[in-house]
Design goal:
The chain is an all-alpha fold and about 550 residues long. Helix content is about 75%, strand content about 0%.
């Protein structure tokens, strides 16, 4: 009876932690993702939530956004639960029976989400968004999911993921072997890019040298472009008025010759109007690019000013330390790939052992490896969750205008599940031998060394490709490459502001153009707006 009460109490604590994780995941989803989507998109599923129920489209409970949000929150909740159980294994909290029972239960739930529920639900929503009824969408989604599951099952056949081939398709080892390949690939690609982008973003050596003259020039060209847009819009309005006067059906007098003359003149005026509209669209695109250039210049200028502060110097120092670490990671990945090496001991124990061998100190290696492993594993978990959620927020904002919100949330949940499940496989090597049992015993049939070698190969390729990509981006984003300094753009500005178009408008329509005459010139407009605070992103 005592044992049953203890198990019930431990189960109550673990379920309580799940409720806490679910609440935090739901809060993150609503405040960080859904709110950004509602402000950046016209998607009915989010904007109509503020309207009464009578104005909403009637849907079944699984067709709206609520179930999608529950799936996302459950994926993040169970991912955090897995990491929590790893930390409990290190600290020895709760009973081993409770920890292992919830470990297997959570693993099965995560695999069910990643392999079955999320892909099938994604297919249903995509088909329904195409305009098909629910009755037809469900069987078609089943057929698509069967094809997906067949391809998913074939993934593990081409990789040495298992020590012995298991015939149990529904086993944890079978699912994790295939999820691990996809998840480790995604994790390695993101880690390789982060290892290169981290130093590039943190070191002030790579900052663009932006001066006040560059910003002043870009703002001046932007104001001149806005002046040109105003003139073009004025000419478009005048041409539309002229077309109305030349419409042969607008007048019932004038005879046959007047109608013929009006038809020819109207055709020429229509061609001129189309040309003006195309020029206007091009100028509006240029103005948007100029605004982005000004925004980037202000961001780089603020980063340069931040570099002169003590906090900036500290960030620069940490950037150099992080750069050394990233270079070390890339070098070790290269060595491991060439010599097919895999670590047999965790890094903490290896560092402590090397420290003891070079000193005369007597240290309890097991005790300190346990404490430091707990610290670094916890730090690794926090940084992994924090970094992934930040990237998910950026991706959600970038795609919020083009893709349905439900599809994006399901895609992010799928990506998150794959990433965290693969992180469990990769985390095993960072644990001391006595704490690997919770992972090894439940996934004992997997070839863990293969996943580490596969991670090193993809990590190295991703790092090299990211280096080349950031090199070309850095070359293309120099302060001399802004649109305001383009010679062709300078010539266009001089040509447009030469006054030929304005004089032509006065000669053709002296009365109409006076009505649209702007009170300020380009220089006076720029001078009056020189004190305007341009909106820029935080550094």
């Amino acid at each position: 009876m005592k044992l049953s009460l203890r198990l019930a109490f431990e189960a109550f604590l673990l379920l309580g932690s799940q409720v806490l994780f679910f609440t935090l995941a739901w809060t993150f989803l609503i405040q960080s993702l859904v709110r950004d989507y509602a402000s950046n998109s016209s998607d009915q599923e989010f904007l109509l939530t503020a309207l009464p129920n009578t104005y909403r489209r009637k849907q079944r409970w699984w067709q709206g956004g609520a179930l999608v949000q529950v799936v996302f929150a459950l994926t993040l909740t169970w991912s955090c639960q897995l990491f929590e159980l790893v930390i409990m294994e290190i600290l020895g909290l709760l009973g081993q029976e409770s920890r292992w029972y919830f470990w297997r239960l959570t693993l099965n739930a995560m695999l069910l989400l990643v392999i079955v529920i999320i892909p099938y639900y994604q297919c249903v929503l995509i088909i329904r968004n195409a305009g098909m009824s629910t009755k037809k969408a469900l069987p078609i989604a089943v057929a698509i999911w069967v094809v997906y599951f067949y391809l998913f099952a074939k993934v593990g056949n081409n990789f040495p993921t298992q020590a012995h081939r298991s015939t149990e398709i529904l086993s944890i080892e079978w699912g994790m072997s295939r999820v691990g390949v996809i998840g480790v690939t995604i994790s390695a690609i993101l880690s390789g890019f982060g290892a290169v982008n981290g130093p590039y973003s943190n070191l002030f050596f790579f900052l663009r040298q932006v001066t006040d003259t560059d910003i002043h020039l870009a703002e001046k060209k932007c104001m001149q472009t806005l002046e040109m847009i105003a003139n073009k819009k004025k000419r478009v309005v005048l041409e539309e008025m002229r077309l109305q006067t030349l419409d042969p059906s607008a007048s019932k007098v004038g005879g046959f010759v007047r109608k013929i003359f009006g038809t020819v003149s109207g055709k020429l005026a229509g061609d001129n109007l189309n040309d003006l509209r195309q020029e206007l669209m091009a100028l509006e695109g240029i103005s948007r690019q100029l605004f982005l250039d000004i925004d980037d210049l202000y961001v780089e200028k603020s980063r340069l000013e931040h570099a002169k502060t003590w906090q900036g110097k500290y960030s620069n120092l940490m950037g150099y330390i992080f750069s050394v670490y990233c270079v070390y990671k890339l070098a070790m990945a290269l060595i491991n790939t060439i010599f097919r090496r895999t670590g047999s001991t965790d890094p903490i124990t290896a560092i402590i052992s090397k420290f003891i061998s070079h000193t005369n100190m007597t240290i309890d290696v097991r005790f300190w490896s346990q404490q430091l492993s707990f610290f670094f594993v916890g730090l690794m978990i926090i940084l992994s969750i924090r970094g992934l959620l930040q990237e998910l927020s950026k991706f959600f904002r970038a795609t919020s205008r083009h893709v349905s919100s439900n599809n994006v949330i399901l895609f992010l949940a799928h990506l998150m599940g794959l990433y965290f499940l693969s992180s469990i496989l990769m985390m095993r090597q960072s644990l001391p031998m006595e704490y690997r049992s919770i992972i090894s015993d439940s996934l004992g049939a997997l070839e863990f060394d293969f996943y580490h070698r596969w991670f090193d190969v993809i990590f190295l390729i991703s790092g090299l490709v990211s280096m080349a990509f950031l090199y070309f981006v850095h070359k293309a984003s120099g302060s001399s490459n802004v649109l305001a300094k383009d010679p062709a753009f300078e010539q266009m500005i001089e040509h447009q502001l030469s006054g030929a178009d304005r004089q032509q408008d006065h000669s053709r329509y002296p009365s109409q153009s006076d009505e649209f005459q702007t009170p300020l010139s380009t220089e006076s407009r720029y001078a009056s707006s020189s004190g305007t605070q341009w909106r820029s992103r935080a550094p």
